[in-house]
């Protein structure tokens, strides 16, 4: 670019120096033609006009082409300026749109929180804990002798038949207080067992380590900070009659480590606090087996005195019934 500029300077300076000379020559020619006699002046003017006509036409054509080019360049510049302004306006509108969308989302979140806080309707399922206590041996013997049983002749019970006390513990709550078979028996937020039989006033509990206990559970590994849990595979926790429960149906492709926590899924969906079953203390992989053999130490060892029985509850739901034939007839009448 510098070379081109330096090369063009002599040309411009030469044209600038010759311009006054050409103007002077033109003036002298015009003056000479004015001083000549009319006949001689016309004789000279006509050939000169004919000789200069192509140059004039070319000059006019160049001026027209230059004007068209200049108009096109000006239009392009105007379009470029308009396009630039439009792009800036589009960016501004896009930024304004993002800001408004953020404010709208914040307003929606606030409305949702306010709606949840002001809701009066009950959820479909809720959790109710029924406080209960374990009955001692003397109380169980007394109940066996004096309390009515929830069985009769329809179940094959005969008069003077022997009544044997079950080896499983009893709690002092039954169907009259809302206890049902399958209810989870808790000590705090830890699972101790399940209700396997519910009578009118007492219920039989199967502890986690006893045969017959089964529960769907899920593994969880504590995070580094110890505040959050990383839930993993699901399996079935079974009682074996030994101090440790056994966790089955977890494939060997799933990561399992000693110290992992085991949580019950019995209250999933309507209990906010996770229900702890125990901790993994031994992991074995039999040769050729597709599932781990996992042994779990219960979170609650000895039988606690104060318990709570978890029962899912919910508001009454009125089901629409199809009208009977008699009802339809009476209604039509």
Short characterization:
The protein has about 325 residues and is α+β, with helices and mostly antiparallel strands.
Keywords:
alpha+beta; 2 domains; 6-stranded antiparallel barrel; rod-shaped; disordered N terminus
Mean pLDDT: 75
The portion of residues assigned to helices is: 25-40%
- Uncertain runs are 1-9, 316-333
The level 1 CATH classification of the largest domain is: Mainly Beta
Number of strands: 12
Q: What's the tally of helices?
A: 4
Strands of the widest sheet, in order across it, are: 1-12-3-4-5-2
CATH-assigned fold name of the largest domain: Thrombin, subunit H
- Beta-strand share of residues: 15-25%
Structural class by secondary-structure content: alpha+beta
How many distinct folded domains?
Answer: 2
Distance between the termini: 105 Å
What's the architecture of the largest domain, going by CATH?
Beta Barrel
Largest sheet: 6 strands, antiparallel
The CATH superfamily name of the largest domain is: Rod shape-determining protein MreC, domain 2
User: In sequence order, what are the helices and strands, one letter per element?
Assistant: HHEHEEEEEEEEEEEH
Note the overall shape.
Answer: rod-shaped
Q: Nearest-angstrom radius of gyration?
A: 50 Å
